[in-house]
Specification:
Layout: H1 3-9, E1 15-21, E2 24-30, H2 37-49, E3 64-65
Antiparallel strand pairs: 1-2, 1-3
């Protein structure tokens, strides 16, 4: 089961972001887009309640979403 499929089973929509790290391609799984830090923190609490470890990051405008 992929991470995205596991999140979907818990009712969490997610998407992939392609990233280059140390010359290797990585796919990061992300969820949500928020207008404020406060909104993001509320969503993080909901994820934690579903036993999903989450961290808040600032989106890079150059990210390549892979849906």
């Amino acid at each position: 089961v992929t991470q995205m499929a596991a999140l979907e089973k818990k009712g969490v929509e997610s998407y992939r972001v392609k990233a280059l790290k140390n010359g290797q391609t990585w796919y990061r799984v992300r969820s949500g887009s928020f207008a404020s830090l406060e909104e993001a923190k509320k969503y993080q609490v909901k994820l934690n309640q579903k036993k999903i470890k989450a961290m808040i990051i600032k989106r890079d405008t150059n990210e390549n979403n892979q849906g």
